[in-house]
Automatic annotation (TrEMBL), chain A:
SUPFAM superfamilies: PurM C-terminal domain-like (SSF56042), PurM N-terminal domain-like (SSF55326). This is Selenide, water dikinase SelD. The lineage of its organism: Bacteria, Bacillati, Actinomycetota, Actinomycetes, Propionibacteriales. GO terms for cellular component: cytoplasm. It comes from Propioniciclava tarda. Residues 165-344 form the PurM-like C-terminal domain. Its EC number is 2.7.9.3. One of its GO terms (biological process) is selenocysteine biosynthetic process. The keyword Kinase applies.
UniProtKB/TrEMBL annotation, chain B:
GO terms for molecular function: transferase activity. This is Sulfurtransferase-like selenium metabolism protein YedF. Keywords: Transferase. InterPro entries: DsrEFH-like, Se_metab_YedF, Sulphur_relay_DsrE/F-like, TusA-like, TusA-like_sf. It comes from Propioniciclava tarda. Belongs to the sulfur carrier protein TusA family. Residues 4-28 form the UPF0033 domain.
Length: 347, 200
């Protein structure tokens, strides 16, 4: 962190600032449904972005995301916000092409802070091979930053978030627990390594995780609704899933921190929503339970794919990360089944 | 009764501050906690439930929710932990950790294990639980020659459990033919509570 730039004030930002799934779906249900037949993906399926078909083999993917600071270092915050905003395009199998900044900043604030935020965002957009092409700024009491992102995808090979098949393995490409680690870090209670691992995870682009994927059945990225919430969206009303908690990739120390109640309000909303929608635990300890509800900022891809492909994919992703010197964990965390009594059985 | 005014604080601060206050005070202490949103109330209720603290909802006003949390008094805390499990008989657990019995020829080992599980159904004292992990997962899944014996045990009330991680690892996730699926927490719990662990 540049010592000459003041740290940002973090009230609990990132995807923990997201509206709860229950509140959101109530509001969205009031809006008119779009009717354009070329709009392949709208918010009807709770998907990540809008996809508009232009020609038979070309569609444009539009998405945006912004939030208050999730970490105190402005440059890192910019990196995280950009990695998070672009992720939706990769989760649909698309390629990120342009990005526009969305900024709210106090007019009397330290402009060096703003400069560092934007530099961090620009660095990640460049790393994604995309063009940062402008933006919009307003003055406000608190800091907000994010990006509006445009990508392209072949509509014939679009990945949806709600089309898994029974028997599919579920793969998660980043460790869980960044919300818990950041909450503890804000209160100076994170053991060494936890926050650092969370930052490494949040700044990593989902670009390679998407590029290495071949013909998955369903893909989404895990963000504010936590693993449980995004998996519920994937399963819809037709499927169920079993999650093996021993297989979950985790940020170090998050189970202990969860038992110490470094839990966000978003996580409590996510638990309430998931338990009301058929998630059940089979004797899973409390600290592990909470990890499933933890709101992730710039979380990993959640993929439903045939089991043999999943083994190969996890190995390929590990090799790719080893080659680039990162050590994030990815693993097969469960199985999609036919609809059962429960929606998600966690054991 | 002391009051903690935690209005204006967002999660997890209300729970963390309450936890600190309760841990720093004598057993049996009650704190009235004031928070400004229902999610903080839910988090405090969850905390109290996890820690065995008393929890009473107080009056709600707009932007002001009052709850009371009480730590257990010293006697209750003492008796809740470390109480020996009352039991007249020994708890027996069979732990099957591979698809063979003993080391040496694999085919022989498989035959021996099949024989062991059969003999178990014929033994005078049946175990309370039979756990299958690692290669043991092959014994409870389709293609195993021990399904019938294990079903006999299960029908008689013996707990038959296979490690879910192991089933998935060997691609047997949808092939379980007898008993239930377990995770490592349950396995540790069962092994720890056993008086006698039998490893064929």
């Amino acid at each position: 962190m540049d010592a000459t730039i003041a740290p940002l004030f973090c009230s609990g930002g990132g995807c923990t600032a997201k509206l709860g799934p229950r509140a959101l779906s109530r509001v969205l249900s009031q809006l008119p449904a779009p009717t354009d037949p070329d709009l392949l993906v709208g918010f009807a399926s709770s998907d990540d972005a809008a996809v508009l078909r232009l020609t038979d083999d070309l569609a444009v993917v539009s998405t945006l995301d912004f939030f208050p600071p999730v970490v105190a270092d402005p440059y890192t915050f910019g990196q995280i916000a950009a990695a998070n905003a672009m992720s939706d395009v990769w989760a649909m199998g698309g390629r990120v092409r342009t990005a526009l900044n969305i900024v709210a900043f106090d007019e009397d604030g330290d402009l060096n802070q703003l400069g560092a935020i934007l530099a961090g965002g620009a660095e990640r957009v460049a790393a994604a091979g995309a063009s940062l092409a402008g933006g919009h700024s307003i003055t406000g009491d608190g800091v907000l930053y994010g990006l509006s992102v445009t990508g392209t995808v072949d509509p014939r090979h679009l990945w949806r978030n709600d089309t898994p098949q029974p028997g599919d393995a579920l793969v998660l490409t980043k460790p869980l627990g960044v919300g818990i680690a950041c909450a503890a870090h804000r209160l100076d209670s994170a053991p060494p390594g936890a926050f650092e691992a969370a930052v490494a995870s949040m700044t990593e682009l989902n670009l390679r995780a998407a590029e290495l994927l071949q013909t998955p059945h369903a893909v989404t990225d895990v963000t504010g609704f936590g693993l449980a919430g995004h998996l519920l969206e994937m399963l819809g009303t037709d499927f169920s899933a079993t999650i093996d908690t021993l297989a979950l990739p985790l940020i170090p120390h998050v189970r202990t921190l969860a038992e110490g109640f470094f839990l966000t309000a978003a996580a409590q909303r996510n638990r309430t929503h998931a338990e009301a929608n058929g998630l059940v635990f089979d004797r899973v300890p409390f600290g592990v339970q909470e990890v499933l509800f933890d709101a992730q900022t710039s979380g990993g891809l959640l993929v439903a794919m045939p089991r043999p492909d999943a083994d190969a994919y996890v190995a390929a992703l590990a090799d790719d990360r080893a080659a680039s010197g990162t050590r994030l964990a990815a693993s097969i965390i469960g199985t999609v089944t036919e609809r059962a009594e429960h929606t998600i059985l966690v054991r | 009764m002391q009051t903690l005014d935690l209005t204006g604080k967002s999660c997890p601060i209300p729970v963390i501050e309450t936890k600190k206050a309760l841990e720093a005070s004598a057993p049996g202490t009650t704190f009235e906690v004031i928070v400004d949103n229902p999610t903080s109330v839910e988090n405090l209720a969850k905390f109290a439930s996890q820690r065995g603290y008393g929890f009473v909802r107080g009056s709600d006003a707009p932007g002001e929710f009052r709850v009371q949390l009480t730590s257990p008094d010293a006697d209750a805390a003492g008796s809740a932990e470390g109480a020996p499990a009352a039991s007249g008989r020994k708890v027996r657990v069979v732990a099957v950790s591979s698809r063979t019995m003993g080391e040496g020829d694999e085919r022989l080992g498989a035959t021996l294990l099949k024989g062991f599980l059969y003999a178990l159904t014929e033994a005078d004292a049946w175990p309370d639980s039979v756990l299958f992990y690692n290669g043991g997962a092959y014994l409870t899944t389709e293609g195993s020659e021990s399904i019938e014996d294990l079903k006999r045990l299960e029908d008689a009330g013996v707990q038959v459990l296979t490690c879910g991680t192991c089933l998935n690892h060997y691609g047997l996730g949808d092939k379980l033919a007898v008993g239930g699926v377990s995770n490592m927490y349950t396995i540790v719990e069962i092994l720890s509570a056993a008086d006698l662990i039998i490893k064929p």
